[in-house]
């Protein structure tokens, strides 16, 4: 575990997403959502972002995605400043936002269709991704025929269909019941490891944040800053039962203490 914030330059070669003095002010300047945030995310790592409501977690994700621009500082991805949406980054939200009139397979194919005409190879890939998320038998089902958890799986497959190697997940399973959420978290860990993605995951849940992550970024309340980076040195694969271990509980206490302190 670290008490110091990692300076992005110290491991620059390994860093695929970095922020330097990132600030974001909304409206007439009265809402300072982020102030002077510094962070660096290592290639292939899983980073969870936790912090009090309104501390700027979603804002940070939207800045990395290029959906919004910083008011100060810069976000860099693969060494170049983010100036708008890019192909190597894909984002997923709490709501699956599937098109009701398209099958699961056709929803997964949507990013490919937006980019051009899907080939048979694209369709095969979409089918493989549906299998990867455990929905091989539901490729021709419509969203209304799928449970909330299954719809989020389709959204996850659609996210992976983009081919992006940086995944931004904003409370993707936040609206699901705890049992489904735990199952999907376990599968998410397996899937991102399999595709080798770098993942930034926003959650309100401290245990979930630690269970999934290599590092937890703990944010301060508004104006948001990265107050502390907690390294999660727990072996993988991680069974759900790891959450009752002393090492896990020590990490929970560390994050809680930091949140209390900030
Ligand atoms: N488009 C916007 N216009 C004005 N203010 C905004 C906008 N987007 C976010 N904010 C404000 O910026 C601050 C940070 O919002 P953000 O959604 O990033 O927080 P969060 O940590 O993700 O919150 P939560 O955990 O409740 O989802 C909040 O005070 C919010 O009201």
Task: Walk me through what this model shows.
- The protein folds into two domains: 8-88 and 165-261, Rossmann fold (3-Layer(aba) Sandwich), CATH 3.40.50.300; 97-163, no CATH class.
- It has helices at 57-65, 104-108, 110-115, 120-132, 148-161, 178-195, 206-212, 246-261, and strands at residues 15-26, 31-42, 46-50, 72-77, 80-81, 89-92, 166-170, 198-202, 215-219, 226-231.
- By secondary structure, the chain is an alpha/beta fold.
- Residues 1-11 have low confidence and may be disordered.
- It has eight helices and ten strands.
- Adenosine-5'-triphosphate binds at residues 26-27, 31, 33, 51, 53-59, 222.
- Residues 26-27, 31, 33, 51, 53-59, 222 line the site of adenosine-5'-triphosphate.
- Belongs to the ABC transporter superfamily.
- It comes from Loktanella fryxellensis.
